[in-house]
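Title: [Solved] ABC-2 type transport system ATP-binding protein 3D structure

Original question kept below for reference.
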Amino acid sequence: MINIQGVNYRYRNAADNALESISLEVQPGKILGLLGPNGAGKTTLISLLSGNLKLQSGSILVDGTDLQNLHKNNPAAVCLAPQDFAFYPSLTVGENLTFFARISPKGEGRRTAEAQIEFALDFCQLSHVLKQPACSLSGGLQRRLNLAITLLASPNYLLLDEPTVGVDPQTRAFILESVKALSQSGLGVVYTSHYMEEVEAIADQLAIIDGGKLLRYGDKSALLESRSSLCLKLVNLSEEESRAKLAEFGNVEVAPADDCVSLEIDLLTTVTVGQVLAAVEGAGGRICEVSYGRPKLESLFLGLTHRSLRD
Ligand SMILES: Nc1ncnc2c1ncn2[C@@H]1O[C@H](COP(=O)(O)OP(=O)(O)OP(=O)(O)O)[C@@H](O)[C@H]1O
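Solution (posted by the thread starter after getting help):
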């Protein structure tokens, strides 16, 4: 398990901490979805875990070993698949894999370089483009090569920074399935993405950060099931009137809609649906459509951060 305790980080000359009192765990065999709007601190946290930034305060233990010792003694234990492609564009897929397999750190019980390449090729389904220069591959295949190179080290924990940026839907589905399969084989995964539906689909646990602080952390199902959301379409009340009348019942998000006001209320646990409907009708509003249930991750996120993933 990666155990992160009380981690703070401040960049040189920065007025504020980029991370403040972050404590969370990454468990083997589980996917932690790390979510936050731009500038929240996701990359800073991932960079600390991957050793690209040095820990300033707090502690990070990986299976009981202090991160600094781990990077010295078993650097392959935690590997990062960076958002920017990290391969040689003019080398072929095969040459890239051979090169990175040779230089990838080898710990006890790791596969040989040949076995590593075979596994990565097979897992990322790249055998058919083995002899093609990396720069000639489609964006989706390049993303798969990026992942294959990270897997060469046979990590115990995998850090994925926006692994589906700029890929076609097929590759996205492929990457999501692959990540799920890796976690089922025992890897602990940290997965950051700006695509909320992806994180909702594959994460077992969620950490939502903003302004360097951890706003919510826990089991995805517990975080989402502990809340209920009421969606309404109504007429005879303006957006502003609806917000003003309903704010006491929970966080209100209004979506653009033709000829009506469409809104979603993240209901406070003490509030009943009947109370909200009565308040709308009492204020002169007419309800055209109602649905009630578990909120989507997106509305939980918006309610907490009041920002979309990309401002
Ligand atoms: N090298 C740096 N020097 C100074 N401040 C930095 C540096 N890198 C990041 N920051 C600041 O630290 C905070 C956290 O940034 P970070 O890149 O970790 O956020 P993020 O959640 O990854 O954002 P994004 O989704 O935009 O990549 C921001 O306020 C950012 O401006």
